[in-house]
Each structure stands twice: as C-alpha cells, then as structure tokens.
Design goal:
This protein is an alpha/beta fold and 461 residues long. It has helices at 5-30, 46-63, 75-100, 106-136, 151-161, 195-202, 216-226, 239-244, 267-287, 289-302, 351-359, 366-372, 385-394, 411-415, 422-437, 441-456; strands at residues 142-147, 168-174, 182-183, 186-190, 206-209, 232-235, 248-252, 255-259, 308-314, 320-326, 376-378, 407-409.
Length: 461
C-alpha cells in the first residue's frame, strides 16, 4: 500500500468510524440491559480491544484493496467495495468469536456489522464528497498531458471542460505537428523530443495516450522517456483494448479511460506470493548450502577469478538491482566483446560452468535476490539495461515485462531455449506476456513444476 496524503486522511476516517462503531457496540453489549452478561466489563477494556480491531480491519481493507486512490472512483463503487470488505471481515470475526468467545453472540456481531456499514461506508462516501469539493476548487489536482492531437484528444478536452475528468489538471498536448495546434485554449507544448523535460518542469503525474492508430513502438518510446518520473499511464479505449481484457477501466465522472498497467493480482495474492518467496527462499538457502559450498570450491579450482558473479539487471518498473550468480564463465569474459549473449558451445564457459548451467546451480545465489525482494521465484528473467533499452525500442509491448518482478524461472524459460539471438527474445516475449496477462499463484506452481523437471533432466541452458 503506497502511503499518500489521501491514504492518511482515509486511514484517519476509518480509524475514527471503526473506533466509534466498537465503542457503541461495547455500550450496547455490556452496558445496557439488551444483552445478558455474566461478567462485569470495564471501559478500560476498550484500550486493548480497539487497537486489535483497528489492526484487524486494516489488514482486511488492505486485502480487499480498499486503499487504492479515490481520485477516479465513483461514490457508488467506493460504497460497494466497502460493504464487500466489511462483509468479509464480519464473516471471519464470526468464525473466530463463535469458537473462542461465548459472550460474543451472532446478534452482537450483526449489530456491529450494521454499525460498521453505517459509519464506515458513510465516512468513506463523505471523504469522497469532500475530496471532490477540493478537486473542484483546484486543490490536489494531478498535472496531466495528452499525447496526440486528434478527434479523441479533442473529445477529452471537451469532457474535461464539462468537469468529467475531475482530479486532473490538463496542461496541453504533446504532438509532432509542425504548426503547434491549439484547441479551446489548450496548446501543444512540444513533441516527444522535449517530452521528458516538460514532465520534469511541470511535475506531471498523469499521461493520457490518445492516438488514432495504436502504435506499440510509440507507447514504448513514451514509457522509455517518462519511466523515471513516477507517472501513471491511461489510454483512450479501443474495441481491441476492451476485448483483450488486460487493461483496467477508470471512469472519470462518466468518461472512460483505460489504465495501461493494471494489477492483476489482488493485494492478498501479492502478499501470498511474497510470503511464498520469503519462506521458500530461506528453506532452499539452508537445503542447498552444501551444494553451494562444494560449487564454490570447484569454481575456485576450475578457473581463475571470483566465485560469485554480480551484474546490474533491470527489474520491476525499470529499477536496476544487483543480480548474484555463481561464475560459470572465464573471468572478464566480455572484456573484448562487450555485452553479448552466450551461445551453444561457447568457449568462454568453464567445464564446471557448463554443468551448473544445465542443472541451474549457477542461479542458486539468486535466492538472496528473492529474499531481498528484487526478484520473485516466478517471473520474466531480468535483462541488462543495454539490452532492455534496445529491446524496448525494437520489440512491440516489451515494456510490459517490466511491470512485474523478474523471476528465477518463468514460463518462457521452461517453454523456450536460452537467448542466443534477437529472434529468441521476440519468441520468448510471447510466453512472458502470456504469464503477465494470466498471472496467478496456480500458474506459478505449474511453472515451478516444469522447472523442477528441467533441472532433474539436465535440460538447462
């Protein structure tokens, strides 16, 4: 959960309404004649009860993704999602309390549920109304740019002027037109050559891509030029976008835009995936320690050079990290050639290095990367920046690989051979995109099963 001012205010609202609901329930349950109680309860108990319940509801709301931005969500959607989160929480509380707390009856939970529905949902809807009030006054707006000057971008301006893109402050157009066209007072600020400077100078947060022909290479260029500036991307929907299902719709007061990088996994699924990475990487580090120690000795005896090979790779959201591997090549293998792929029968690979590659032993130090959170067990393999910069300009949709954490193994690794050429990269991208668009814990386990088969059968590259 990314903490912003909006999140802080929303947390304050939830803490107040949940606390208020808990206090009222306590009074009804233990201080009124409505329920029979067998022991005396003091108000001091609330000092313990309220923090525990606040933590409980914070976890539930996070699992249900109830702290995502309110900027582009309607009050109805906010209310319905809040009801869904509260219902899940009450069901869990019912299971817990019926097993352990006999005084906390189902009737008491029903009253608590109704109190929460009233106060929490009302608090969140009121928060949305207040937020909209400030946005209409021009407070807290996100600076935005429109890429393209065409019918679609003009319609965006018209909808914006009607107040249907509340939350945005559109600065103008980015277009390659020679005459710097202008529409209803909104000017063309420049072309893609000066695009990054405009983002920096104006603190742009939202980029709306409005091109009549969806050109993946253009989108590659836009993302490459703006990736370092914490911006969000939205596109004007086409029929192809809607059918593909790999974009998320935001309705800005009746006008639909599509988010370019939707999160397919829920916060709960992301937490499970991360927990799996931490637990399994710790277990495997212990279990494979003898193999790694023996490998370290053999590497040292087999050839001159360091045991561990480190290299900067590009991870999620273009962030670089240091990747660890057992050295499987001669020291300074790329000193004369520069960054190049290994090929079948590559003379730079040592004798033991060849064995490590077939059994994936050379990848074992990357368990540390998984533990640190740079990588996951399953995901697209990370590449070096020099390759990424070339691929993103030459291969359509390559940028999507950088929306998820890279992995120790992936669908492309178990379905296709090691990269030896540009064509291999393009072919493996199909598998990576399939994984990204269908990512799930179930698919992760399937990939791990296939990976185990590759290792056991010495089919690594």
């Amino acid at each position: 959960m990314k903490i912003t001012k909006e999140t802080n205010f929303l947390l304050a609202s939830d803490f107040f309404t949940i606390g208020l609901s808990t206090v009222i329930l306590f009074i009804i349950k233990f201080k009124s004649a409505y329920f029979k109680t067998y022991t005396e309860h003091s108000y001091y108990e609330l000092i313990i009860i309220i923090p525990i319940l606040l933590l409980f509801w914070l976890v539930i709301f996070h699992i249900k993704d109830l702290y995502k931005s309110f900027y582009f969500r309607s009050a109805i959607e906010i209310a319905l999602s809040s009801v869904s989160g509260l219902t899940l929480g009450i069901v869990i509380l019912y299971v817990i309390t019926t097993m352990n707390f006999h005084e906390f009856s189902g009737k008491g939970l029903l009253i608590y549920y109704l109190l929460l529905l009233f106060f929490v949902v009302s608090g969140r809807v009121v928060f949305k109304i207040v937020l909209n009030h400030f946005l209409k006054k021009g407070v807290g707006l996100r600076n935005a740019l429109i890429i393209g000057y065409n019918k679609s971008s003009k319609k965006i301006i018209r909808e914006y002027q009607k107040g249907r893109l509340l939350g945005l402050n559109i600065l103008g157009f980015i277009d390659d037109g020679k005459n710097n066209p202008e529409y209803q007072g909104f000017k063309t600020l420049g072309d893609l050559d000066v695009f990054e400077n405009i983002i920096k100078e104006n603190h742009v947060r939202e980029i709306i891509i409005s091109v009549e022909v969806k050109d993946p290479f253009l989108i590659n260029t836009i993302i490459l030029k703006s990736k370092d500036h914490n911006v969000y991307y939205k596109v004007v929907p086409s029929l192809e976008d809607i059918i593909s299902g790999n974009v998320r719709t935001y309705e800005l007061f009746g006008y639909k835009l599509l988010e370019l990088f939707p999160d397919i996994l829920s916060p709960f699924q992301r937490a499970l995936k991360r927990a799996f990475d931490i637990i399994v990487s710790l277990v495997l580090l212990v279990l494979t320690l003898p193999i790694m120690l023996i490998s370290a000795i053999i590497i040292k005896l087999d050839s001159k050079g360091s045991i561990i090979y480190t290299q900067d790779r590009v991870g999620k959201d273009f962030k670089e990290f240091t990747l660890y591997k057992f050295r499987s090549m001669m020291e300074n293998a790329e000193a004369e050639t520069g960054a190049v792929w290994a090929i079948k029968g590559d003379t730079r690979i040592t004798k033991y290095g060849n064995f490590m590659r077939k059994t994936r032993i050379d990848e074992l130090p990357q368990l540390i990367n998984v533990l640190m959170g740079n990588m996951s067990f399953v995901g697209p393999r990370p590449e070096r920046k020099v390759f990424v910069d070339n691929f993103i300009q030459a291969i359509p949709y390559y940028y999507k690989r950088l929306h998820v954490k890279p992995g120790l193994t992936g669908w492309a690794q178990v379905k296709h051979k090691y990269d030896e050429s540009f064509d291999d990269v393009k072919e493996k991208l199909k598998y990576d995109l399939y994984y990204i668009e269908n990512i799930s814990l179930k698919l992760d386990f399937i990939i791990l099963f296939y990976t185990a088969k590759v290792v056991i059968n010495f089919k690594g590259h």
